[in-house]
Amino acid sequence: MTKNKHDKGKVIAVDLDGCLAQYDQWKGYDVIGEPIEPMMALVKKWTKEGKIVKIFTARIHNHAKAKRYVEEWLEKHGMGGLEVTNIKEAGMSEFWDDRAVAVKKNTGEFFRW
What we know:
single chain, 113 residues, alpha/beta, Rossmann fold, 20% helix, globular
């Protein structure tokens, strides 16, 4: 059976800055922090299991070269080939982010750290 990357519930989105890469302040599109090893290991585990992982970052919004910088960083750290996006899609089953607030579906109830 061929996997369709848009199958509902099959895509795990992982934020770049503050989640996969160290981040303390904006230093430019071409400056991406050092890897955060526990998250890097988790993403690599998921990809080995055949899960579809996409790297989510606002960096690529309105900047032509930013996506290339992110792709080069991923390649350097053993995760080349992962899709880089800034678009939330219907097929996302999980979204891992350092700024998110989790909202329980259809309730308005939320969890804040």
